[in-house]
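PT: before anyone asks, these are the final sequences, not the draft ones from last week. 729 residues across everything. Please model them as a single complex and drop the result in this thread when it's through.
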Amino acid sequence: MRWSPYAFVAPFFLFFAAFGLFPLLYTGWASLHRVELTAPTDMEWVGPRNFARLLEDEFFWNALKNTFTIGIISTVPQLLIALGIAHLLNYKLRGSMFFRVAALTPYATSVAAATLVFVLMFGRDYGMVNWALGLAGIDPVDWQNGEWTSQIAVSTIVIWRWTGYNALIYLAAMQAIPKDLYESAALDGASRRQQFVHVTVPSLRPTILFTCVVSTIGATQLFGEPLLFNGGAGATGGADHQFQTLGLYLYEQGWVNLHLGRASAIAWTMFLILLLIGAVNWLLVRRLRKST
Amino acid sequence: MRRTVILAVVAALGAGLLAGCAEDGEGPGGSSANGGGGGKGRTTITVGVFGAFGLKEAGLYDEYMRLHKDIEIKQTSIERNENYYPQLLTHLGSGSGLADIQAVEVNNIAEITATQADKLVDLGKAEGVSKGAFLPWKWAQATSKDGKTVGLGTDIGPQGICYRKDLFAKAGLPTDREALGRLWAGDWNKYLAAGKQFKAKAPKGTAFVDSASGVMAAITGSSARRFYDGNGEVVYKTNPAVKQAWDIAAAFATEGLTGRLQQFTPAWDQGYANGTFATVSCPAWMLGYIQDKGGAAGKDKWDVAPAPKPGNWGGSFLIVPEAGRNKTEAAKLAAWLTAPEQQAKLFEKRGSFPSAKAAYSLPAVAGAEHEYFGGAPIGEIFSRAAEGIPVTIIGPKDLVIAQNLADVGMLQVDQKGRSSKEGWDAAVKAIDNALDR
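LR: through. Structure below.
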């Protein structure tokens, strides 16, 4: 009996070792070699050269910058909207179950399907967005080719998909807030708005931090939306690489240009960036705990 | 007692999961073990292709299975070659997950021939293959330096110019395909001149050509030496043929003759549906696409004329990996699928133009007319183009070079309004980064 818990958890660790740890280590090993996808067994040791050249690789820096900007303009509005929606869903309303399921529907939609619809909507010549702008007397926008416009369009897809998901997480946390806090706030004469700002948001702090971290990780790995937003060309992320993210650049190096070693170095750099984000989060949580 | 039960359950679950994974890992090739379903002793041959390849759609598998009762053919398809090809390489590298027959796009065949030949069956020696039936240059493209033929040609992409008769008439250009062929014969600059003439009186909201990148692909497809020289060196930067193609295509963009579209995107399809551009350089395989996207509204409006210079764009090969389970049967099938008679059927049903020269005299090709394109004698037009195509030198990174020139460089000139030089520099930078290991 003493060993049975280990037997229960063993499958996870076995699979993690096979499909998580081994690829991670192998990628690290490959990143120190010159190796091509046409001959993956033919490796030539180059040491940290693949990492060193990233420092002077303007496509890498461009991708890092794009990942950062797209991450900001998708995560910030997304979490704010999610908070608002969760607050509304938290009211007693008829058919609340329907609205909760509806909020989660975009999350259940496949990236590919959603993105293809958005590509049509953001079309230059016949897109719905430009048509609507036209009604308001605004000239058509070339969404795909502009630097900001393309990033906003990609962010819109991300926001659409993930807002409901985050809203439900916030809603779950909100429902755990003791009702008497609101009652006493109401007795003290706090309006709904003031209750939201002074009761709900402080109580949600750990949850907000959690969603921030998860969204940041998601934003760092952003791949499907920008890939499919660029219908014709695949991994270039637009004519000027204007919406090429790190994930897309990794894919281009590894699976279009077939340079496994360089792609592995990008993968490991992304991994290190995520570890850094994790460390910052840990520090934040620690400070937060001290302050309360 | 209880403990052993629990352990047994865990072990069973784990084993089940592992088995599931193992089966999955086999990929398309795995089905041959348990495939067939019906009769005993049937051999299942798997075929891996990209896109709507056409072999299945043209009924060739069904016909082969009728002729060979003991064979069953299964096909797996991945929509885009950009996703299909890397997977094929990883599968070749690991020697697993391969279909018995795999399709390879012409832009990848040089790399396959140069780097993967030892993992592939020599189809030049396979049963039923006749070298003389193929166009010599097509045969040479899949033959390695030491004489091993790793791929059999399916279709090629001889090019014409597809054009809208109604828009040409409104702009005061001739609408007869022979007259147009003569108008721009021999020189892409004459095509450019026709574009300028079109623009002067063009109906509002229409452009002469869909995209500058399309023009560039057509021109580079008509020169023997483009991105590589005979010694396998990358020469696109200094090759005057590439420079000329670039300049003419860029002129289309800067003169405002293009619809500023990118090929194979939803916006391009909408351009066909709404008739916003008058011409497109069309390899034989594109006619079906145009018909598909142009729909009923485009009927009797499109026609096809000879291109200024004969060129090739696209086409594919079939290869048989050594790691496959049914190599001999697969090679036989590949030989049958690429035999002139079958290539003619593929052309008849799907418009993929035969790479087997011997097919050109067959009635299905020689007498072919395309109803949607005003009854144009496409068999004759494309046969003539196919025979005039120069023996193109292709290199391992052709696709990467072509794609960056089109989707980075020329797209910047066409859609972002950059200068020709800025676009070229951006493309060169991207290609240098891609080629440098």
